[in-house]
Design brief:
Distance between the termini: 38 Å
Shape: globular
Helix content: over 70%
Order of helices and strands: HHHHHHHHHHHHHHHHHHHHH
Strand content: under 5%
Largest sheet: none
Radius of gyration: 22 Å
Bound molecules: beta-D-glucopyranose
Number of helices: 21
Amino acid sequence: MTSFIGGLRDGNGMVARIAAIAAIGGLLFGYDTGVISGALLYIKSDLKAGTIAQQSIVAVLLLGAIVGAAGSGYLADRLGRKWTKFAAGLVYIVGALGAAFAQNVAELVSARFVLGLAVGTASFVAPMYISEVSPPKLRGGLVTFNQLAITVGILVSYLTNLGFKGVPGNWRWMLGIAAIPGVALAVGMLTVPNTPRWLVEHGREEEAKQVLQRLRHTRSEADVAAELAEIRQAAAAQSGSRRRSLTGRDLRPLLTVGLGLAIFQQIVGVNTVIYYAPTILASTGLSNGGAIAQTVFIGLSNVIFTVVAVMLLDRFGRRKFLLTGTVGMTCSLVLLGLYFSIGALQAHAPYLALVGLVSFIASFAVGLGPVFWLMISEIFPLKSRSVAMSACTVGNWGANFVVSFTFLSMVGAITRAGAFFLYAGISVGAMAFFAFRVPETRHRSLEEIQQDLLARVRAHGAGGLAANPAQSQRPQPPEPL
Ligand code: BGC
């Protein structure tokens, strides 16, 4: 625990401040995905929204996020990570105010689509930005600030829903106050530098050097020069055509890892818990009030276990957390499946539903939750990083969309127990994929990771990725992707 905090005290306070500003994007992501469940209760009577209208109000944010994530890979390349995030902050303010003042369903749906554009963009540009400014030893914890902000955003949205319960026009407040973090993000991004990696890639080396000197001010000039040289070398090694960047043969195994993590992160059913926890808990016999209170408890566990990930990911490595967390998720899903299929458990041990949900969310929070976003910010070569991260993020939001909108019909078709057993089976598949495909990236610079992974792909194909880096062959300088 002390090593992350010690690392921050050790002259890295400024990087941590910058990472915290970039992570405001995560707060917006979490708040807006969480707030709608509570707001919808009031919107439906106020705007006379039927079932299709309600589903559209919820779903359109995910569609906007898919479009935002798809378009902003290009922006992150051209404008840079900093200005893309600044733009996301502005779009966010427009979307939040548009939603708060919507006069009918069509206006609200349009505003939520605009919000989705910002959420989809911020969701991957935040980890990319933080990863590119962080020193290797603290990168896991700092990038996970973003996941922490997502979980805090979800928790705050649950609390806001509780807090505005009897207030007239409450849903407008619930949706509108999200403009405040939007302003904080846009203004905050004006105060942070461009990332040294993006600057080098755009031939702005002198600025890159100045930024590195600011960010690593406790290190010697020689250390800064060495870091710059390493970035320059990696950027120069990929000076191929941009169009080839997503289709290159060497990149394919890395894209498989990124997309595998992206899709598994959603199809283990995490958002059925985040979005439907009150419904699931109410079905165990709790009152609506009791179900909402216990949902806050689930949100709190999500935050607390993400703090554990922030503290320990750099010490123990990504794979250990990913694999242990996925074992925990599988056991919790089996427990939930058993609970909903055995009447005696429901009658005599109703608390088991909450135990299953909390242990599932805690296991996700220490593993797959943060590790997906962290890993996609680490494994891709600089040249392809924005498009590849954007592709994985599109996969993640796409899978989120499919799972969220099939859950209720799936429960109708195969029962709640069947749905949880199905997620448990998928989670076993995820474990195998992670064990055989996902590499360890702890403590190495982005450039070392990139060289090492390319060398392993060339020597052993995709199967070599998960090998212990100490046993893998020495990194070779990569050729153009
Ligand atoms: C996922 C979200 C999820 C959240 C829960 C994120 O990493 O991408 O879909 O709602 O974690 O904490």
